[in-house]
Design brief:
Elements: E1 4-13, E2 20-24, E3 38-39, E4 46-47, E5 49-55, E6 58-63, H1 69-74, E7 79-83, H2 97-100, E8 104-107, E9 112-121, E10 126-131, E11 139-142, E12 150-152, E13 157-160
Parallel strand pairs: 8-13
Antiparallel strand pairs: 1-2, 1-7, 2-6, 3-4, 5-6, 8-9, 9-10, 10-11, 12-13
């Protein structure tokens, strides 16, 4: 598990005074401000975040040290991370997506099915994208209690009971 969790991304400048368009990946989108300061993935840069308004699919925000439109435009696409200890604890049956990526997926008999490549959500619930050496294409496994009865973060594995014919 990484000490950093991606909580948002910058979508470019908003206005001419250094404001940015900010997409929040938090369950409560406004909470991104409470995790400030946020840093880059490599930890080289850190920014204080102050939300100043809402826009479609996000917020307008001021980042510490960003004063011009050109500086804000240069940050387009930058992902922002919070330290894990800044984030709230989750109940036993909830997980940060970052914790699931890379876990080995085994079936209930112990046969290796693959590894979690990403966690997708297109509105109907989370899907685990699983890839592995025996798979021609990635497999999308619905992340439900029926399909994924066990997630063991300490062992780095998921026990899956996929629908017949999925693998």
């Amino acid at each position: 598990m990484s000490d950093l969790v991606c909580v948002g991304a910058l979508a470019g400048a908003f206005g001419v005074r250094g404001e940015v368009r900010l997409k929040s990946y938090c369950a409560v989108p406004e909470d991104i401000e409470t995790y400030s300061p946020l840093c880059t993935e490599d930890g080289q840069h850190s920014y204080s975040v102050a939300l100043i308004g809402t826009i479609q699919n996000g917020f307008t925000a001021r980042l510490g040290g960003i004063e011009t439109k050109e500086q804000a435009d240069a940050l387009r696409g930058l992902r922002l991370f919070a330290r894990r200890d800044q984030l709230p604890s989750l109940p036993d049956d909830e997980f940060y997506h970052a914790d699931l990526i890379g876990l080995t997926v085994l079936d209930s008999g112990g046969t290796r099915l693959g590894q979690v490549k990403s966690v997708l959500n297109h509105g109907a619930g989370d899907l685990l994208e699983i890839h592995g050496p025996g798979l021609r294409d990635s497999v999308l496994l619905p992340f439900t209690r029926d399909n994924v009865p066990t997630v063991d973060l300490t062992q780095g594995r998921i026990i899956a009971d996929p629908p017949q014919g999925l693998f």
